[in-house]
Amino acid sequence: MKRTGILAASLMCSVMLLAQEREAAVLFSGGGDGMDNSYLLTENVSVVFDEDGKALISLDGMDEKEFVLDEDYPVTAEFRDAFTLTANQDLNNTENYYSTFYTTEGAYKVPDEAKAYIGEVSGEVLDLTDVGDIIHADEPVILKATGSSITLMPSCNKDAASAGNKLSGTEEGIASAPANVYALSFGQNGVGFYEWSGRAIGANKAYLMLGSSLSAPIRSFGMMFDDGTFTGIPAVTVSDQPQNGAIYNLQGQRVDGSYNGVVIKNGQKVYNF
Fold it and tell me: What is the pTM of this model?
């Protein structure tokens, strides 16, 4: 008996950083070589499992592919959605585009034209770390790409989400974000995480949520990538040495040389490690 499965595509819109599209895909995993292959489906394409234990898939522009299901090297076919994200361009650095992503549905592959990052808060900066080739399930990430479209295909990876990530995520969206929530946006300082209280956050998006005990209001967080580049902090000078003289944080509070983050010294913004 033949079984055919097709999932309908649906459109998901996000207030934060434009729209995203969900499109039906099939994920093949297992086999003797540790298969982890996923393919988009179209309206006229189906995946068929025949009586001989073979899974057949035919895609536009590709030859028919055959995967044998057997007891020694079983191959599993799973229907999951692929996500195509529309990223916003950094107006200060036109080569880079940004978006965020979050889901608990499973792992997703990072395409060659993009990188995915998790973040930790350090002063008024979000320190970002590259997660590698896979966005794990339940792992909110920031995506930096070379173009405005980022397609994330499903993966069979079952590893746990990366530790130390201060980003949060929502699958259904948040109609009205509470206080101390920051969303990826382009503001007066460029691309960064800006205060977002009272406005909607789209489905499958990541955001930054701080506790209610902030010593002073923080309007935005710049992003520091693990390659040493910055966004959202204008005219930053990097320093790895203690600063001499009076040092202030971005809230105007005097701090000492052990303060980690963006500080103001002699009228200049510097990043103190």
Answer: 0.76
pLDDT digits (tens, 9 = 90+) for 28-40: 887 767 889 888 8
Residue 102 CB partners (closer than 8 Å, separation 6+): 138, 139, 140, 141, 167, 169, 170, 171, 204, 205, 206
Is the Cβ–Cβ distance between 196 and 184 less than 8 Å? no
Query: Which CA distances in Å does 221 have to 28, 120, 185, 232?
Result: 40, 11, 10, 7
Q: Which residues of 219-245 are buried (b: 16+ CB within 10 A; e: fewer)?
A: ebbbbbbeeeebbbbeebeeeeeebee
Place of tokens 């974000």: 177
pLDDT tens-digit series, residues 234-259: 555 555 554 456 776 665 567 777 77
